[in-house]
């Protein structure tokens, strides 16, 4: 049968552990969502840059000023690549960085529609952001879907490093709090022991 001291210590320890685990899970989720949103914003910025460098001829042919593209899209074996799907659902343009990459199947999106998701390409996780536009020319509108793909190994490594740091520091805090709690309980129950 547990003594009063043991019961109080067990109860306080249990509450403390539940509280710490709850905090850890909340912080982990918040960081994951924030990091994912950062990737989404970064890919959308690249899409806007790509659209700014694009011109569509009256025939519907795309002319992309590749010399204006950033280093990631302009180099082979980059972790980031882009491509454009035209109204026939075929690839109208692809970045230099996509030459050694498998292009995922993307449906033509309606004008203004955005799509951000995680996909598997060659057994590796990737993020893809697609955006549908309708390019206006004197001879008519041409629906296009711009897509930017990024390998999320760096994202996963960032999350893993954060989790290691988070659980490491929380473990230290738990040990310190438990030691403090034991000392406070011992001191607080000392008069009861004398009685």
Q: How would you portray this structure in words?
A:
The chain is α+β, with helices and mostly antiparallel strands and 195 residues long. It has helices at 4-52, 71-74, 153-188, 190-194, and strands spanning 54-56, 62-64, 80-85, 91-94, 114-121, 124-137, 140-151. Strands 4-3-7-6-5 form a 5-stranded antiparallel β-sheet. A hairpin with a 5-residue loop joins strand 1 and strand 2 (62-64). The mean pLDDT is 83.
Helix content: 40-55%
Q: Give the strand line-up of the largest sheet.
A: 4-3-7-6-5
Contiguous low-pLDDT stretches (5 residues minimum) are: none
Strand content: 25-35%
Structural Rg: 27 Å
Q: Mean of residue pLDDT?
A: 83
Main beta-sheet annotation:
5 strands, antiparallel
Task: Please provide a brief summary of the model.
By secondary structure, the chain is α+β, with helices and mostly antiparallel strands. 48% of the residues lie in helices and 26% in strands. The longest helix is centred in the first third of the chain and has 49 residues, at 4-52.
